[in-house]
Amino acid sequence: MTNLDPPNNENLGLTANDGANFWLDKGFTWLVYVFAAIAVAVLFVMSWIIFLEAKPAIDKFGIGFLWGQDWDTANEIFGALPYIYGTLVSSAIAIFFAVPVSIAVALVTSENFLPPSIQTTLAFVIELIAAIPSVIIGLWGIFIFIPVLEPVQQWLANNFKWIPLFNSEFPVGTNMLTAGIILAIMILPTMAAISRDVLRAIPKELRSASMALGGTRWETIFRVLLPAGFSGIVSAAMLALGRALGETMAVTMVIGNSAQISLSLLDPAYTIPSVLANEFAEAQPGLHIGALCYLGLVLFAVTLAVNIGARLLVQWVGSKNK
């Protein structure tokens, strides 16, 4: 008589890892752990070396370095506030312009607004911007973009001088606003490409269900797709912001390199990467190099804080949507 009893479950270990190639899987797992540990170790070693170089400035200026506004290399008086201000404001301007444009590009290239061939071409052209060296973008900004932008800035200064953001008597092309727009152009491909991948990964069933319930195309986008891809879009924005915070050459060429704090976006400014690029090669050992390394630590801390804040924001929004 045929035995119809189900086989022993112990013989059906589909996820059992005692096969002949298990040692390869285990070895690969440990290899990944080792590489991850090396990456973390390199980060800590870099931070420790920069800290040791910055220690003379840390010992002399302490936490007051962060809000000091004087930078006098002859008298060895250093303050970081103008550079911190320029870095944060220029990056904020870049995010202000890049986020809506990037989301629009991601929507146009992921939804069926255009034929697939045009979508692919448009996405490819946008991503090509990321391959342009920053110094080339800086040169383009000096010779092409600034002459076009100068009349617009002069018009803003003449007609909206009562707004502190445009309160400049004689605006020049090399200023905070120009640097912010150049940064927005540079970070646009990164955010647009990642946001596009996020939106394309959303199941098509969500779109169909929304429209089946009577939602329009735009209601589906703003109430279903964007909320579903919120965490990925925020991650793309933070990655782009990290690029903006650390960008050096293009910003150095168009921001004006003036260590001042001005509410007007039409005035020259300075950023931490710019002052590092301009002064590090000629800095004297001791307090000057220490102050520059201190600025590097501040930039690292700002970038780390931005990423931690973005992670907490994504977790908070995710808990609200449960």
Topology:
Blueprint: H1 22-61, E1 71-72, E2 77-78, H2 81-110, H3 116-128, H4 134-159, H5 176-201, H6 204-212, H7 217-228, H8 230-246, H9 249-254, H10 272-279, H11 287-320
Antiparallel strand pairs: 1-2
Helix pairs in contact: 1-11, 2-3, 2-5, 2-8, 3-5, 5-8, 6-7, 8-11, 10-11
Report the order of strands and helices.
HEEHHHHHHHHHH
What strand order characterises the main sheet? 1-2
Outline type: globular
Specify the number of helices: 11
Arithmetic mean pLDDT: 86
Unreliable stretches (pLDDT < 50, length at least 5) are none
The helix content, as a percent range, equals 55-70%
Q: CA-to-CA gap between the ends?
A: 55 Å
Biggest β-sheet description: 2 strands, antiparallel
Number of strands: 2
Structural class of the helix and strand makeup? mainly alpha
- Percentage of residues in strands: under 5%
Global Rg: 26 Å
